């Protein structure tokens, strides 16, 4: 007669429990929906406005004697805080996703985001400090009065390299993983219940500041192509899921409406500045989306 292993009798109920629990998790992942993350979306919107949008403003408001030109500005400390808080909030958002997202992609995206934002911190710090020396954002690097007469001329190449790190490499490594993470999260924001496809009042109130911030992000970051690609990918996913009778939950609706408002604001911004000859010269490409800070140095700061 074969002896039964002592743990065999107790292993079967345990295995059944684990199997049932695993099946339950899979079922919840397929049909479960998350409540509106008011705390995360509020913190996310608040820190975007304070630490990102408010960064260059704080640099101009605080006395120069407190933050000398050869030291980090108050805006740089805002940027450092942003580089820590934003990845943390993104990870918390991913944790609350009803759908299990690929961890490797999330981790690589977060790492790339931090590296890109840090590259941007350095380039943007120097470029904004140049404002105190007469640098004009609405002009290209070589056309700026304080740059074009530098000797030797190779110094101009160094400033163009700095601009490249700030406006191109830094922005790409910062924003591509940022929008990728938001899209991955968005892909899990669907529910089979039509009644759950609505937003609470608090979400409606947050849509306006959220959409307005993304307008600033798209225009100042010069990432309209990345943004429009992400928005149309979201729209295509919504239409695809609708065929399966799946609808956006409150978090998905919040993201979608925020991006839709952003697109409307960008269109209005471009239409308003469509015939500006100076900005047209700086942004000569097919995609004409002027930066708010270029508009500020051209039309606002000269009158102050």
Describe this structure in words.
With 304 residues, the chain is mainly α. It has two domains: 35-188; 199-299. Helices cover 70% and strands 1% of the residues. It has eleven helices and two strands; from the N terminus they run H-H-H-H-H-H-E-H-H-E-H-H-H. The protein has helices spanning 8-31, 38-61, 74-95, 103-129, 145-148, 154-186, 201-221, 224-243, 250-272, 277-282, 292-300; strands spanning 190-191, 247-248. Strands 1-2 form a two-stranded antiparallel ribbon. Helix 2 packs antiparallel against helix 3 and helix 4 packs antiparallel against helix 6 (154-186). The longest helix has 33 residues, at 154-186. It starts with 7 loop residues before the first helix and ends with a helix.
Ordered list of secondary-structure elements with their pairings:
Blueprint: H1 8-31, H2 38-61, H3 74-95, H4 103-129, H5 145-148, H6 154-186, E1 190-191, H7 201-221, H8 224-243, E2 247-248, H9 250-272, H10 277-282, H11 292-300
Antiparallel strand pairs: 1-2
Number of domains: 2
Tell me, rounded to a whole number, the average pLDDT. 86
Structural class: mainly alpha
Indicate the multimeric state: single chain
DSSP summary: helix tally: 11
Secondary-structure element pattern, one letter each: HHHHHHEHHEHHH
* Terminus-to-terminus distance: 98 Å
The count of strands amounts to: 2
Give the overall silhouette. globular
Task: Please give the radius of gyration in angstroms.
Answer: 24 Å
Biggest β-sheet description: 2 strands, antiparallel
Strand content: under 5%
**Unreliable segments (pLDDT under 50, ≥5 consecutive)?**
5-31
With strands numbered from the N-terminus, the spatial order across the biggest sheet is 1-2
Considering DSSP H and I runs of 4 or more, what fraction of the residues is helical? over 70%
């Amino acid at each position: 007669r074969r002896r039964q292993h002592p743990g065999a009798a107790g292993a079967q109920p345990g295995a059944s429990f684990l199997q049932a629990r695993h099946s339950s998790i899979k079922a919840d992942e397929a049909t479960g929906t998350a409540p509106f993350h008011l705390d995360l979306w509020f913190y996310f919107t608040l820190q975007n406005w304070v630490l990102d949008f408010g960064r260059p403003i704080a640099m101009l408001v605080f006395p120069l004697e407190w933050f000398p030109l050869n030291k980090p500005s108050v805006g740089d400390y805002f940027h450092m805080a942003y580089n820590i808080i934003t990845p943390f909030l993104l990870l918390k958002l991913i944790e609350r996703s009803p759908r299990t997202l690929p961890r490797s992609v999330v981790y690589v995206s977060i790492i790339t985001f931090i590296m890109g934002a840090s590259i941007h911190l350095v380039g943007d710090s120097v470029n904004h400090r140049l404002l105190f020396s007469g640098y004009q954002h609405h002009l290209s690097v070589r056309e700026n009065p304080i740059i074009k007469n530098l000797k030797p001329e190779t110094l101009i190449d160094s400033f163009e390299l700095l601009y490249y790190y700030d406006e191109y490499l830094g922005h790409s490594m910062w924003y591509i993983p940022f929008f990728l993470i938001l899209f991955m999260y968005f892909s899990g924001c669907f529910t089979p219940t039509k009644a759950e496809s609505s937003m609470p009042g608090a979400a409606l109130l947050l849509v306006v500041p959220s959409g307005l911030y993304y307008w600033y992000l798209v225009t100042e970051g010069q990432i309209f192509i990345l943004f429009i690609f992400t928005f149309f990918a979201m729209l295509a996913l919504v239409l695809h899921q609708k065929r399966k009778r799946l609808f956006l939950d409150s978090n998905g609706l919040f993201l979608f409406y925020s991006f839709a408002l952003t697109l409307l604001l960008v269109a209005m911004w471009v239409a308003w500045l469509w015939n500006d000859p100076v900005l047209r010269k700086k942004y000569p490409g097919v995609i004409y989306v002027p930066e708010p800070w270029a508009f500020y140095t051209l039309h606002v700061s000269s009158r102050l």
